[in-house]
Amino acid sequence: MGDLQTDALSQRLNRLERENRWWRILGIVSMALIGLVVLLSTAKGEGKEYPAWHKAMTINSVDKNVHEEIWTRRFVIVDKDGVGRGGFTTNDENSPLFFLTDKEGNQRLTLVANEDGETSLSFYNKGKESPQIELSLSPDGSSSLWLTNNGGININVDENGWPSVLMMKLDEGFLFNVSKENTALFLKKGSMESQIIVKPNFSGFLLRDGEQPMALLATSSGGASLVLNKDGKAIWSAP
Fold first, then answer.
1. Which residues contact 135 (CB under 8 A, 6 or more apart)?
2. Residue 56: CB partners within 8 Å, gap ≥ 6?
3. Reduced to 3 states, what is the DSSP secondary structure of residue 102?
4. Among 15, 133, 135, 153, whose Cα sits 20 to 30 Å from the Cα of 107?
5. Where are the domains of the chain?
6. What is the distance between the alpha carbons of residues 213 and 178, in angstroms, rounded to a whole number?
7. What burial class does residue 184 get, using C-beta atoms within 10 Å of its C-beta: 0-12 exposed, 13-18 middle, 19+ buried?
8. Contact by Cβ (8 Å): 131, 122
9. Region class of 178: left (phi > 0), else alpha (psi between -120 and 50), else beta
10. Contact assessment for residue 142 and residue 155, using Cβ atoms and an 8 Å cutoff
11. What does the DSSP assignment read for 73-94?
């Protein structure tokens, strides 16, 4: 009886040793695979240049001196040569301002929120004091987009949602305006100018040379029509 118990115990120990050996082998293989994955990941990242902002963002926050809040009057951004290229500050009107410049110090972009509540984003060409592109939003809800270069385009939407489009080039121009009161189209070429105006109870066409009217055609909702010559005299009317 004792021999049988001894044999059973011996067989159980042998089985446990085999299972333990397999677990050791499995653990070694698993560690080898994990090491291989880490090695391949490291090799893949070698030689790859990440931008500075990416490196800064990937640093563990524990290694940074993180401030919950910073109070300052001016914050300047510099390039790798130590040249100021932008920053946050307040302008002469005490309005918060974000700005970017090129390496020569020329202003290229500004974002400002004025004290009266107007917010504007402006883009500047090199050496120009006035913006070439400007997008603004007023406190009353009106918005405007300017594109300029010795002329330009202005797209405006007033506080009531009525749009207007203005295109100008020296003595040439085009204006299309839609409002609650009327719809108007103005065309200008040199001294010659034409206007078409449509109102709820009136429509008219005016052609003039400078300040001198050349012709006027007008009609009203009552059916009356009138044509004037350049002297302002009626040459036809109905009824």
1. 120, 121, 122, 143, 144, 145, 146
2. none
3. coil
4. 153
5. 191-239
6. 24
7. middle
8. yes
9. beta
10. no
11. S-EEEE-TTS-EEEEEEE-TTS
Q: 204 is written with which tokens? A: 């008219």
What pTM did the predictor assign? Answer: 0.60
- Token code pair at residue 168: 């100008």
Beta strands in 83-200 (DSSP E): 84-90, 96-101, 107-113, 119-123, 133-137, 143-148, 152-157, 163-169, 172-178, 183-189, 192-199
pLDDT digits (tens, 9 = 90+) for 145-201: 999 887 788 999 999 888 998 888 766 788 888 887 888 888 888 888 888 888 888
Two structure tokens written together for 87: 């920053």
User: Residues 186, 202: contact at Cβ < 8 Å?
Assistant: no
Could you give the CA distance from residue 153 to residue 138 in angstroms, rounded to a whole number? 19
Q: What tokens were used for 166? A: 């203005």
- For the four alpha carbons of 27, 29, 35 and 41, in that order, the dihedral sign comes to negative
For 188-226, how does the pLDDT look when each residue is reduced to its tens digit (9 = 90+)? 888 888 888 888 888 888 888 877 777 777 787 766 676
pLDDT digits (tens, 9 = 90+) for 121-140: 999 988 788 889 999 999 99
Whether 133 contacts 152, CB under 8 Å: no
* Amino acid occupying residue 8: A
The tokens 């500004």 sit on which residue? 110
